[in-house]
Write a sequence for this structure.
């Protein structure tokens, strides 16, 4: 699979694609990265100081630690870097940095609480990133069709809805391949831009 137009958007030096994985706390992001990564998933500890207006409860410069999911895998010779967004609301200010340079996103959803994924969808749509919705099925969750999920989440018709078992490497690889194919389909080629 080659995707020159997509690769040209990648910030990484070599041929690689950065993708973002988002979704509410407990939806399976860490599990998914651990299942699929060719390297030991990295837990990044970042020190950051509180900024903005709401520092009333943390006066002065504070240092905190945030865990971020990061994994890497090869899909048909292309290196794919997966960056998970932190689920905790207080770390949402890091999202812009995480999303920068990404070519696409996976929004993970749990059908027992689809509404918890709305704000993640909103954010990714606002950034105009091509994305797929991945439904992570939990044992006691009712089974919905892709169309039911699409309707509940008010998704545009072209957004793929994919079922995934976040614990299963092959399942996650299929999901990421679907995303990469969707990104390629959604990214104008130089030829189509010119015409
Ligand atoms: N049954 C089932 N459980 C899952 C699946 N993915 C994650 N879990 C479990 O759900 C919990 C939360 O997953 P985690 O990856 O930590 O969620 P995160 O907060 O999005 O990183 C963990 O106990 C996982 O073992 C899945 O596909 N199926
Ligand atoms: Mg996690």
């Amino acid at each position: 699979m080659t995707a020159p137009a997509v690769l040209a958007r990648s910030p990484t030096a070599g041929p690689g694609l950065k993708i973002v994985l988002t979704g509410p706390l407990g939806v399976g992001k860490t599990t998914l990265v651990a299942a699929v990564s060719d390297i030991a998933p990295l837990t990044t500890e970042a020190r950051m100081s509180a900024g903005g207006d709401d520092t009333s409860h943390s006066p002065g410069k504070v240092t905190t630690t945030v865990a971020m999911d990061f994994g890497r895998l090869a899909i048909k010779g292309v290196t794919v870097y997966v960056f998970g967004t932190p689920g905790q609301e207080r770390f949402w200010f890091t999202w812009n940095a995480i999303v920068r340079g990404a070519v696409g996103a996976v929004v993970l959803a749990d059908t027992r609480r689809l509404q918890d994924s709305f704000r993640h969808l909103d954010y990714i749509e606002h950034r105009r990133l091509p994305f797929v919705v991945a439904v992570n099925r939990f044992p006691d969750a009712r089974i919905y069709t892709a169309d039911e999920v699409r309707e509940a989440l008010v998704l545009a018709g072209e957004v793929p809805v994919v079922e995934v078992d976040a614990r299963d490497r092959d399942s996650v690889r299929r999901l990421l391949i679907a995303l990469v194919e969707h990104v390629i389909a959604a990214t104008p080629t130089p030829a189509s831009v010119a015409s």
Observations:
- The domain at 9-188 is CATH 3.40.50.300 (Rossmann fold).
- The two ends are 24 Å apart (CA to CA).
- Residues 29-30, 69 surround magnesium ion (ligand 2) (CB under 6 Å).
- Confidence is low (pLDDT under 50) at residues 1-13, 48-65.
